[in-house]
Each structure stands twice: as structure tokens, then as C-alpha cells.
Design a protein that fits this description.
Blueprint: H1 4-32, H2 39-58, H3 60-68, H4 74-92, H5 95-118, H6 121-142, H7 148-156, H8 162-168, H9 172-182, H10 199-213, E1 220-224, E2 230-234, E3 237-242, H11 250-267, H12 284-299, H13 302-315, H14 324-331, H15 348-364, H16 372-383, H17 410-425, H18 429-433, H19 437-447, H20 457-465, H21 472-483
Bound molecules: magnesium ion.
């Protein structure tokens, strides 16, 4: 139950809630069904809605209600905490700064695309320098205690700092060594990667798998888009998308299972939190822990393959020639990869660590943008054992910096590490081995999902697992899975 004071705040917040609902739906439509030439018009509409949201958040009456509120319980504390964060973001950055950042982003996206096409970092360098400069300014506006990068990290993962990242990445040397030992065991190309499939049949298989795993199709949909994503309008409308490439079916299947993890987190938030500021999942890192748990821990397992073997064979008859173990190998191939989004779960955090190091030093001013291609390639060689032959396959591969998002990448590593910690702490191993999806889901719902954003992410992790994020669990998980427990 909410006190009258907080009820009034939530009542006023419902305007923002509704605008966010509309904004999300417009965004989903843009990626799926919108006619191609509506692009500009849609952008205008979305821009205006964003401005309205900002106006509601910064309305003096609303701000003073939030600033003066005295929360009486944990839910109320959560509501005020989340609102204060939003208000801070909208009030600390001067209007001129936001306008300049928006202009630079629009330019950067075009320039990045051209540079990537021509595989020439020099085209991108000037605008990236400007972006880095703007992000350093942004950190000053937002404020920080120890490190300018902290101000940006906190935007994507509440409470995240360089210190905590250092702790998380302390296992990088061991992961890199483990990767070195494992990578040679796999074929350079697996025959199943070349096998084609019928798109509509695979779509049916994916719908069946998601249904069996517990996706509620009365509150969700699965559609097609160039990049798979999840978007939630509210608790009762959460949508995911999948991309079909026509061959190598595990890519579409695992991407769908990944988005299923994001979607069910949103669907399982407690009804009591509906239409409040704490309705959604708490942070990018915790969100990614859910998607990675379902994709990597559950989806890329022998139990999953055995559970869906018959259904997979109906859609993909060529699978009859492959044993369960062989299919498991195909689902868990480990090979040196230049591109982050193609990377397997063993080397993935190494790709993130590289980006973290670069971002941190750019923010400190101890690295110059002009050095990036060299630094990138050297680190790839050191961590993964391959050297990108050109900028396009190296420093130019990600869109994030062109979007002026510095500080986002580490949340992916939190996701990987937290998924392993949840496996251990919630004692889910046996359920994974039995493909007991219901059991897994109810444990995750109980410890993580139902709380929405009531608790800050670090507190939620401690409540759910009994300790702060501990990278040792991730290391043990990888050793167990890829070295059969051997050190
Ligand atoms: Mg994800």
C-alpha cells in the first residue's frame, strides 16, 4: 500500500508512463512493420514525445513533490530513488549540451557508417574525438567521486564504478588462458553452420520452444527484425523479435531464447508495481543476466538439446544424422572471433574488457582517439589471439560510440557473470539438467523478476545470491562446462 503522498506522485507519473508506452510501441513498429518512407515522420513524432516526457519529469511541482517525499517502505523508497535518478539526468545537463550531443550523434552515425564501409578509421576519427570530448564534459555535469568514467557507467548500471569493474574483470587473465586451452578443440567450420532451413518452419519451431519454456503468448508476440530485440509496453504487452538468416539455425533459435529471457523478466514483475516508476527490470546488467541465463546456461546445454530433439528433427530433418553430443558441440563452438556479436560465451567478456579499457582511458585522457586502431588490434592479439586485418573488422565494428554511449559495454559482462552466479546461488544446476523450465522460472521470478526496480541492482544481487557480484562463479562455470571441471 502506498501513502497518499506517494500515491499522488504515482498518479502524476501515469502521464509519463503512458507516453513511454506509446514511445515503445512506436519504436517496435518502426523496427518491424513501418513502411520504409515513414522514417522521418516517425522520428519527428518520437522526438516530440521525448520532449513531453522530459517536460513532465522536470515540472517544478512534480520535482518538488519527489524531492520532498518521505518514503515509508521499500517500494516507496524504490519509487523515489528511480524518479530522482531520472530528474537528475534531465536537470543536470544544460539544454545546449543536449542539443550539441544530439547533433553530433546524428553526424557520427552517418560518418561511422561510411568509415565502416570503407574500412577507414581516419574518416571517423574527428567526430569520435568530438564525442569523447562531449562525454568527458557530460561526466563533469553529472558529477562523480573517483573517476570521470564512473559518471557514465552509472547511467547504464546504477552504482557501477571503475573500482567495481576492476574487480569484475580481475578474472580476465584466467578467462583468456582458459580460452587459449579450449579454442583448439573445435572444428574451424561445423557442417551444421552450412545447413539451410525453411524460415517459416523454423519460426514455428521457435514459437513452440518458447511456449514450452513458458512464454505467455496472450501477453507477448514474436516478430521479425534486422536486429533481435525485446520491447515492453507494460506488464501485459512484451514483444520480441528474431532474425532469420536462412542457414545455421542455432543463431535464430538461441537469439530467440535470449530475448525470451529479457521478455519474461518484464512479464514477471509483480502486478503491484504496475504503472509505477519501478515497474520495469532494474538495470541493463541484471536484464542481460536473465537473457544470458536462458540463452547460454539453459539453451546451450545437453538437456535442452535432448528436450527438443524430436521437435527440432521435424523441422530440420538433417539433424537425424547427428548425435546429441555432436549437436551440443555445434551449440557451444569456441573459436577466435574478431566480431563481438559473433563471439561465444567463453571469449565474450574478453571483447568487453578490451572496450572497457579503451573507454576508461579515453575518459581519463590517457589515451588518444588517434591511437585506437593500434591499441585495439594489439589487445585483440593479446586477449583473443587474432589480429583484425582491417578497421572494419576491428575498431569500427560497434555502433555504440557513434551513438555517444560510452559506459554501456560493461553491462554485458555483468550479465554473463551474474548468470553464472545465479546458477550457483539459486541451486539451479539440477533443474537445468532436467530441463525443468518451470522450476527455473519460478526461482528467477521469486528472487529477481517480481521486484522490478524496487531495489538498486547491487542490493538485488546481494539479496538474491547472498553476495555482491563475484566473478569466480563465472570462471568456475566456464571451467566446468568447457574443461569438464578440470583446472
Ligand atoms: Mg540482450
Amino acid at each position: 500500500m502506498l501513502s497518499p503522498e506517494i500515491k499522488e506522485i504515482v498518479r502524476r507519473y501515469s502521464d509519463i508512463w503512458a507516453l513511454n508506452y506509446a514511445y515503445s510501441l512506436l519504436g517496435w513498429d518502426m523496427e518491424t512493420y513501418m513502411p520504409r518512407n515513414s522514417f522521418r515522420e516517425r522520428g519527428e513524432a518520437q522526438g516530440i514525445i521525448k520532449t513531453l516526457i522530459q517536460r513532465f519529469y522536470t515540472h517544478p511541482e512534480f520535482v518538488s513533490l519527489v524531492e520532498g517525499a518521505k518514503p515509508q517502505n521499500e517500494v516507496e523508497e524504490g519509487i523515489i530513488r528511480v524518479l530522482k535518478r531520472e530528474i537528475k539526468l534531465y536537470t543536470r545537463l544544460p539544454k545546449e549540451f543536449i542539443e550539441e550531443e544530439t547533433r553530433t550523434k546524428a553526424e557520427a552515425f552517418q560518418v561511422w557508417r561510411e568509415a565502416k564501409e570503407k574500412s577507414d578509421f581516419q574518416i571517423y576519427r574527428p567526430v569520435l574525438e568530438k564525442i569523447v570530448e562531449l562525454q568527458r564534459k557530460k561526466a563533469e555535469y553529472l558529477g562523480y567521486e573517483d573517476h570521470p568514467y564512473d559518471a557514465l557507467l552509472d547511467l547504464f548500471e546504477e552504482g557501477l564504478t571503475v573500482k567495481k569493474c576492476e574487480r569484475m574483470f580481475s578474472v580476465v587473465p584466467q578467462v583468456s588462458a582458459l580460452f587459449g586451452r579450449v579454442k583448439g578443440k573445435y572444428p574451424e567450420r561445423h557442417p551444421l553452420e552450412e545447413e539451410g532451413y525453411d524460415r517459416y518452419l523454423l519460426q514455428r519451431l521457435i514459437e513452440h520452444v518458447l511456449q514450452e519454456m513458458g512464454f505467455d503468448f496472450s501477453r507477448g508476440r514474436v516478430d521479425v527484425s534486422p536486429h533481435p530485440f525485446t520491447v515492453e509496453m507494460g506488464l501485459h504487452d512484451v514483444r520480441i523479435t528474431v532474425r532469420y538468416e536462412g542457414k545455421d539455425f542455432r543463431r535464430a533459435l538461441m537469439a530467440a531464447v535470449h530475448e525470451f529471457g529479457h521478455a519474461t523478466y518484464e512479464m514477471n514483475v509483480s502486478e503491484e508495481l504496475w504503472m509505477t516508476p519501478v515497474q520495469g527490470g532494474v538495470s541493463l546488467g541484471v536484464h542481460e543476466s536473465q537473457s544470458r541465463f536462458w540463452e547460454n546456461v539453459v539453451g546451450r546445454s545437453l538437456a535442452f538439446i535432448r528436450r527438443f530433439r524430436k521437435e527440432m528433427e521435424l523441422t530440420l530433418p538433417f539433424l537425424r544424422e547427428y548425435g546429441d553430443e555432436e549437436l551440443f558441440t555445434y551449440f557451444t563452438l569456441v573459436r577466435p572471433e574478431l566480431i563481438r556479436v559473433e563471439a561465444d560465451e567463453v571469449q565474450y567478456v574478453l571483447h568487453i574488457y578490451l572496450r572497457y579499457r579503451i573507454e576508461k582511458e579515453l575518459m581519463e585522457g590517457t589515451m588518444r582517439v588517434s591511437e585506437l586502431p593500434e591499441v585495439w588490434n594489439d589487445m585483440m592479439e593479446e586477449l583473443i589471439g587474432v589480429r583484425p586485418p582491417n578497421d572494419s573488422l576491428g575498431v569500427l565494428q560497434d555502433i555504440h560510440w557513434a551513438h555517444a554511449t560510452i559506459g554501456y559495454f560493461p553491462t554485458y559482462a555483468i550479465g554473463s557473470m551474474l548468470s553464472a552466479q545465479l546458477l550457483k546461488a539459486l541451486k539451479l544446476e539440477e533443474m537445468v539438467d532436467r530441463a525443468d523450465f518451470q522450476g527455473i522460472m519460478s526461482a528467477l521470478r521469486e528472487r529477481i523478476h517480481r521486484h522490478g526496480s524496487v531495489y538498486p541492482p547491487e542490493r538485488l544481487v546481494e539479496m538474491a545470491t547472498g553476495e555482491p557480484l563475484n566473478p569466480e562463479h563465472f570462471l568456475n562455470y566456464l571451467r566446468e562446462k568447457y574443461l569438464g571441471g578440470a583446472l
